Amino acid sequence: MPDREHDIVLASENRTFYGREEIGRFITPEYIRGLFEGGTFSNDRRQNGARVPCVTLKMHFRDKALLEGIRDYFKLRNRVYEYTHGGRHYAMLIVRDTPALKNTFVPFFKNQLLGHKGIQFEEWLKMFPYLNSLHHRDLPGRDLKT
User: Fold this and answer.
1) Total domains present in the chain
2) Which of 69, 75, 76, 100 is the most exposed place for a label (fewest CB within 10 A)?
3) Is position 78 within any domain?
């Protein structure tokens, strides 16, 4: 006979407190910046060896809706990937699109990351200085409310 308590715990392990639409209503710039303190500002390599800047945020797959909410907040078209590694199931948002990085992510995070990630962000900008020449569009979370 199955253990009912065990089944309830397993069922709740892969749920989130809010769904994707609700997450979109509650998400704030400060919340996103806090999550990205654990994210990665790095680079990928193309087949020709060229480095391409990228921003990555990875979580357990149960938080895929949260990553989709962040993607939607920034009005990105990126897919949130799912993959399994080492017996664990992950969801990951990767942004490599230079205009999105340059016009949205750089101004959103510049001088806003409080921990060591702020230093890593500045070093990342030194690797890709063209990302620092801004052509701002309307940034999420900075609209004036009347």
Assistant:
1) 1
2) 75
3) yes
Q: What is the domain-level CATH number for residue 63?
A: 3.10.28.10
Amino acid type, 91: A
Confidence at 15, pLDDT banded by 50, 70, 90? low
Task: List, in sequence order, every beta strand (DSSP E) within 1-146.
Answer: 40-45, 51-60, 80-85, 88-95
The residue segments making up the domain with residue 49 are 4-96
- Strand 40-45 and strand 51-60: the pairing is antiparallel
Residue 74 lies in a domain: yes
Residues with Cβ within 8 Å of 11's Cβ and at least 6 positions away in sequence, in order, are none
pLDDT in tens, 23-70: 878 889 999 999 999 889 999 988 898 899 999 999 999 999 999 999
Instruction: Say whether 59 sits in a helix, a strand or coil.
Output: strand
